[in-house]
Amino acid sequence: MKELAGEYAGRIWNALNETEGLTIKQIKKVTKLKDKELYLALGWLLREDKIFSCVAGEEEILALK
After folding, report:
1. From CA 25, how far away is CA 58, in angstroms rounded?
2. pTM of the model
3. Range of the structural domain that residue 20 is part of
4. How many domains does the chain fold into?
5. Beta strands in the chain (DSSP E)
6. Is the pLDDT of residue 1 over 90?
């Protein structure tokens, strides 16, 4: 499970590395992760203090630190 979480987190990190930030919906589309995989990876990245979130209008944006 740890290996998969790391792999999924890597996909998200790569997607965010190419942008200023993305919404959850955009990350899901770019990475092609299922909900369970997406949230597992986001938890990993948040725990490792690699990403942060901010609110832009009505949407939450995630970006790399």
Report:
1. 13
2. 0.90
3. 2-64
4. 1
5. 22-23, 51-56, 59-64
6. no
